[in-house]
Amino acid sequence: MSEKKFRQLRTSKVNNMPATIKRIFSFMFKYKIKTVIILLCIVIAALTNVASSYFITPVIDEYVVPFIGMENVDLSNFAKMLVILALIYLSGTIASYLWRKLMSLLSTGMLDDIRTKLFNKMQNMSVSFYDGHTHGELMNYYTNDIDSIRPLVAETFPQVVSTAISIIGVVVMMLNQNLKLAAIAIVSLVIICVISILLGKYGRKYFLEVQKTVSDINGYSEEIFQGLKEVKVFQHEKQCREEFVKYNEKMFSVAVWTNTFAGMLMPINNNLSFFTYAIISIVGSKMAIEGSITIGALASFLLYTRQISGPISNLSSQFNAMMTAIAGAERAFNLIDSEDEVDEGVIELVNVEKDQLGNLTRTANRTGLFGWYNPSDDSITELKGDIRLNDVTFSYEKGHPVLKNVSLYAKPGQKIAFVGSTGAGKTTVTNLINRFYDVDSGSITYDGINVKDIKKSSLRGSLGVVLQDTNLFTGTVLDNIRYGNLNATDQQCIEAAKLANADSFISRLPEGYNTMLTANGSNLSQGQRQLLNIARAAVSDPPVLILDEATSSIDTHTEKLIEKGMDRLMKGRTVFVIAHRLSTVRNSNAIIVLEHGQIIERGDHDDLLKQKGRYYQLYTGAAELD
Asked: Which of 153, 51, 48, 148 is nearest to 100 (CA)?
């Protein structure tokens, strides 16, 4: 996905609110039984509210007004009417309790479904997608954006349904009681609806902008907290505060407009409602004096007036949360609907057995031998580890090539080292082999097969990678080593740790291999974390190994300790090594010197020293890596 599309994803407007709302409730309607019961309970609660107001008319006209001034009044029928009213209110209360209880369960399940869908989507996104987003921004999708949907589902939706039923019921009852007063109420209702729609239309864009600014603040804060040591070491607290103020002021500006629109709606609707109530009271009182309407009917009518304006005022108070929910939902749905990482490959990595004649057959057992299975012709090509770059050109941004016409090869079992200044393109070569990115021109072949024809999961499954930046996950030491091969036994993980010479320090941990690691292994040194990273690669037992500055975080003493283990790990494998320490690449079969995206020298250690070029200058200290 391009950076332009990233920006569109982050700043797109809520262009289709009905479609977004429909999408939200498509998740809700997966819970059909709960939804039906909820809707039924809402209908009952709304109708009991309408019915209770209707009974005010006979209560006043038949049991209150006629008995005024009378003595020894028979109140038995009046008591029965009160019991009926009590039962109506009780039914409404029980129905309200049930739908609120069920809606709590339903909305929680809904948000769980959306988060799961979003998380699954993110697993299918390309590396370039993550390059364009901060961690805090991505987390904002799961927290602020999705959490904002709950009030829409759990509160606003029931309120809308209840209001719609109440309005229909009330309008019918008003028209049945008095057309003149009903006309006044309906005109007021139309005015309130028009104002709500207009304010919603003009205020909608600000709610999406609020979500974006919250996302930006979260992203910046997460970045600063993650690098807090660097901030303090370089005394950048003042600059950080100033930068945060800029983000905060931007959010403040947007929030002012957002709350302005949200704050206008409820007072306007409330005042219109009170004004309508006053008009109907005046007109109704005059009609009651003239005898064209009874006192009970007027009292009932005034209750209906409040039953129309009350729910609408409640909806107005939820306007802010409703628009925030729609904006957050659209951001999440835009991400869910974005393109997956493209994978047109069909060739799979499979376990194979080889007979005495050299014929390969596919097997479900792990044999240590692998092959490339092509389903189009049912053929199997043995995985040997022959990787070649043929006239490869690549750029992260169009017009700014990072690699220019690079051609190189690694024969099975060879160790190829990349040397060059920062930004020369060393890591980019390994990223292209992994197909984190695709070449602009040229091709990369793996055992004679274009890597674009190999399924990415199979391609990456054949490559073991040790990166400069180590990421450890919450879990035991054993769990973190097993991350390289989830099917590995405890003993295999321990053997891998011994191979990387990590066993000695692991054994000294409080609970050995069962010691819990948290916060990216903050209780370990940088060197120890990297040793675990190497052990993780060892347990995966890959045919091809990529070491990207694998020993840069390890001191010289530790490096010597693991050198033999690394040699054992690399034995019989095709290995690509990126290193600043030239001492680690002396025994490479070929050393590729890159500068400005081009190969300027190649050969083994002795050949390059004889050439007395860039490598010679670096090795003798006449020049330094930038």
From this structure: 153
Sign, CA torsion 179/181/187/189: negative
Taking a C-beta distance cutoff of 8 angstroms, is the pair 539, 484 a contact? yes
Beta-carbon count within 10 A of 278 CB: 11
**Rounded Cα gap, residues 19 and 111, in angstroms:** 18
DSSP 8-state code for residue 324: H
Contact by Cβ (8 Å): 177, 301: yes
**Number of Cβ within a 10 Å radius of residue 191:** 15
What single-letter amino acid sits at 74?
A: D
Q: What pLDDT does residue 12 have?
A: 40
The tokens for 10 are 């982050």
Q: How many residues does the chain have?
A: 626
Stretch 24-42: mean pLDDT: 90
- Could you tell me the CA-to-CA distances from 377 to 336, 381, 456 in Å, in that order? 35, 11, 20
Distance CA 10, CA 17 (A): 17
The pairing of strands 441-446 and 590-595 is unpaired
Helices and strands in the chain, H and E counts:
24, 16
Q: How far is CA 254 from CA 7, 142, 556, 558, in A?
A: 18, 22, 53, 53
13 pLDDT band, cuts 50/70/90, is very low
Segment 223-278, tens digit of pLDDT: 777 676 667 656 778 888 888 888 888 888 777 777 776 667 667 777 787 888 88
**Burial (0-12, 13-18, 19+ Cβ within 10 Å), 306:** middle
Distances (CA, A) of 163 to 36, 140, 158, 183, 474: 18, 33, 8, 19, 48
Structure tokens at 70: 């009378």
